[in-house]
Specification:
The complex is a heterodimer of chains A (456) and B (229).
Chain A (H helix, E strand, L loop, with lengths): L1 H12 L3 H28 L17 H32 L1 H9 L4 H34 L5 H25 L23 H23 L9 H35 L3 H12 L3 H35 L7 H36 L1 H9 L4 H36 L16 H15 L2 H7 L9
Helix pairs in contact in A: 1-5, 2-3, 2-5, 2-6, 3-6, 3-11, 5-6, 7-8, 8-9, 8-10, 8-13, 9-13, 10-11, 10-13, 10-14, 11-14, 13-14
Chain B lengths: L6 E12 L2 E12 L3 E6 L5 H8 L7 E6 L2 E2 L5 H10 L1 E4 L11 H11 L4 H14 L15 H13 L5 E5 L7 H18 L2 E5 L3 H4 L4 E6 L2 E7 L2
Parallel strand pairs in B: 3-8, 3-9, 6-7, 7-8
Antiparallel strand pairs in B: 1-2, 1-4, 4-5, 9-10
The chains are: A mainly alpha (456), B alpha/beta (229).
Chain lengths: 456, 229
């Protein structure tokens, strides 16, 4: 392991400028993860009720604090996904290096380990930076931080690089570096659907949610209400999965139809790509679609909740300051927004990565006379065509969830209005996805050169 | 009784196809310790595939490869990697050096992978770079070296562990005639000194002339053997 670490360090140190942006992105992801982890650890170390200057009392009692901690930990999921995406970029750039390591006698597992350790080192950088900021803040907010608070800090600071390395290993599990990797790259065709790992993760989320809702609802007054969150959760999941499935199905259908009929080169190239791997868009956009459903639904739910709170305040039925409730609602909005930013960033990184992977094929097309603007339009169409119906379904599904929530509220359908503002979410997400795809176009101009065809 | 020495590496009736395209169709070859053999043939005759099968980089679809009594084609990946670390050295036309590592660290890499401390590995690597006339600027990265220099660094890396067999696939394919001569002279000279066997794949008659024996491949079959001068 020491030799592997040393080799990983040598490789990081010798990386060229193009590689450094990947290391920087990984470090930024690790910084976010460490920040979220440190905040969760600090909150978890607080015992009993205590007054806090933050969150209008949301952090004062153990029950609410638990909710905030869970939300912080859930935000780690997209961050870890982002870190995994960064590792994949490295994997492509380092194919040749991995092949050379294999030729020198390294086993496939060892090559993966060295590659993952490189990610670990980048995560260590991010973790150190975040901890360096957090450690002076902790005593400032808590005059005498407890031993568990410091222990949690150390655990998180050390745990993020370890988790980053583990996430790297997981993301690279299918990367097989052969000693001939630089000569011939035999990769399995990626015509798979969403895959058992995705379905497994989904099952874990479902089970955890059912457990969490059931365990916090039993024995409390009005425990029948437990069915409400479960129904909303099930609806979000169903719409999200439906949108992902629609992306794959629509990609294949669009690809087949357009490839047979179009006379435009850009559309033809995009259609052939969609026909070749219809599930690529579904895999790339699954997280975005789920966040779209949650975001659209939340805008509707938020509208109803705020209206109800206002009504209760008017009737003097609120036990505490209204800010206590609105802060929770607004923090949820921030968390969803943050999740959206993270998945969109991962999408932009994925788009650039996809371009880097295909640069030889694209270079061959340029060499054969296909103008770069045509390739650029084809790349945008590959995102735009399958995503349009999926985002529409995700948005309408989210809107329906918001409306359904409003109609089943305490006042029934009285006084509710359709939250049309929620429709801005899918429109914004669609535009952001296209922007993320467009962000990779400069890379098309810079990295796809017919001259590359002389090599390998 | 034949005067031929006991073969170190033996390939029998090798068959290999890339998809539906046959590359080897019953190729046979023997390589004795200390022997230098050139495999020649037209483009697409299966020369490189034969070398890849012999070095355990690619598994043949049929036939057998035996090295020192061990069936290479049936070895697990871990043992194959170990063989490449200890007994085999591989040189390609280009691409085998790691761009992020210096010339010195590239040569030291197989030793480090085998567990040698970096300082000791670098010391031995420096000696090999000197030997191949590439020791003047060991801190340069592959991108800063000329083609001939890079190939001499690659040779040093292939030989640093003291392999018993060196596989060279078109080692001079990307070099001019002067650099080709320097590289081949260095390879042959070192092989004679260390007693390593060399299997060199080439389409260049001048390179083949360095060998003790030439094996011609035609359409995936060893077409004939010729003893060189």
């Amino acid at each position: 392991m020491r030799t592997d670490l040393r080799l990983a360090w040598l490789l990081v140190r010798g990386s060229d400028r193009q590689e450094w942006w990947r290391i920087a992105l990984t470090a930024v992801g690790a910084m976010c993860a460490t920040g979220l982890g440190l905040a969760a650890a600090a909150l978890a170390s607080v015992r009993g009720s205590r007054s806090s200057a933050f969150g209008h009392g949301l952090l004062d009692h153990p029950g609410e604090r638990s909710g905030v901690i869970v939300a912080l930990l859930l935000l780690l999921v997209p961050v870890l996904g982002f870190l995994g995406q960064c590792t994949r970029i490295g994997a492509v750039h380092r194919d040749r290096r991995a092949a050379a390591l294999r030729l020198a006698g390294a086993e496939p597992g060892r090559v993966r380990r060295i590659t993952a350790l490189e990610t670990g080192l980048a995560c260590l950088l991010g973790s150190v930076l975040a901890t360096a900021v957090a450690v002076p803040v902790l005593p400032a907010e808590w005059p005498r931080p407890s031993v568990p608070a410091w222990a949690g800090t150390v655990l998180v600071a050390a745990g993020v690089p370890v988790l980053g390395t583990a996430a790297g290993l997981l993301a690279l599990r299918r990367v097989v570096a052969s000693p001939l990797g630089w000569v011939r790259r035999n990769r399995p065709r990626s015509g798979r659907g969403v895959g058992p790992a995705f379905l497994g993760a989904l099952l874990v989320v479902v089970a955890a949610t059912v457990l969490a809702v059931a365990s916090t609802s039993t024995g409390t007054a009005g425990s029948d209400d437990a069915s409400g969150p479960l129904v909303v959760f099930a609806a979000v999941l169903a719409v999200g999965v439906g949108a992902v499935w629609l992306t794959g199905t629509f990609s294949g259908l669009t690809g087949r139809l357009l490839a047979a009929r179009t006379g435009t080169p850009a559309v033809l190239i995009a259609a052939e790509r969609l026909r070749d791997d219809p599930w690529a868009a579904a895999r790339a956009h699954a997280a975005v679609l789920l966040v779209t459903v949650v975001g659209t639904g939340f805008v509707g739910v938020r509208q109803v909740l705020l209206a109800e709170l206002e009504e209760m305040r008017r009737r003097h039925e609120l036990g505490t300051d209204i800010a206590f409730y609105t802060t929770g609602v607004n923090l949820t909005a921030v968390a969803i927004g943050l999740a959206l930013v993270i998945v969109l960033t991962a999408l932009a990184v994925g788009a650039a990565e996809s371009l880097a992977t295909r640069r030889r094929g694209l270079a061959a097309q340029v060499a054969a006379g296909v103008p770069r603007p045509v390739l650029g339009r084809a790349l945008l169409l590959e995102t735009a065509l399958p995503l349009a119906p999926a985002v529409l379904v995700a948005g309408l599904g989210g809107l329906a969830i918001g409306i359904g929530y409003a109609r089943t509220g305490p006042d029934g359908s009285a006084g509710w209005s359709v939250p049309y503002a929620a429709l801005l979410v899918p429109a914004g997400v669609y535009a952001a996805c296209l922007l993320a795809a467009a962000a990779s176009l400069p890379l098309l101009r810079r990295s796809v050169r017919p001259g590359q065809l002389r090599y390998a | 009784m034949s005067n031929r020495p006991v073969p170190l590496l033996v390939a029998r009736d090798l068959v290999k196809a890339h998809g539906s395209t046959p590359a080897l169709r019953g190729a046979r070859l023997e390589l004795a310790a200390g022997e230098i053999v050139a495999v020649t043939g037209a483009s697409g005759s299966g020369k490189s595939t034969l070398l890849h099968c012999l070095a355990g980089i690619v598994r043949p679809d049929g036939g057998a490869v035996t090295y020192a009594g061990e069936r290479v084609d049936a070895l697990p990946e871990r043992r194959l990697s170990e063989l490449r670390r200890t007994d085999f050295g591989v040189v390609f036309q280009f691409g085998q050096l790691i761009p992020e590592l210096t010339a010195l660290d590239n040569v030291a890499l197989p030793l480090m992978l085998a567990g040698t401390a970096r300082e000791a590995a670098q010391e031995r690597a420096a000696g090999w770079l000197e030997r191949f006339g590439a020791g003047e600027r060991p801190g340069l990265r592959p991108g800063e070296l000329s083609g001939g220099q890079a190939q001499r660094v690659a040779l040093a890396r292939a030989l640093v562990t003291g392999p018993r067999v060196v596989f060279a696939d078109e080692p001079t394919g990307a070099l001019d005639s002067l650099a080709s001569e320097q590289v081949m002279t260095a390879l042959v000279h070192t092989a004679r000194e260390t007693g390593a066997a060399v299997l060199v794949v080439t389409h260049d008659a001048q390179v083949a002339a360095y060998a003790d024996r030439e094996v011609r491949l035609q359409d995936g079959v060893t077409a004939g053997l010729e003893v060189c001068a």
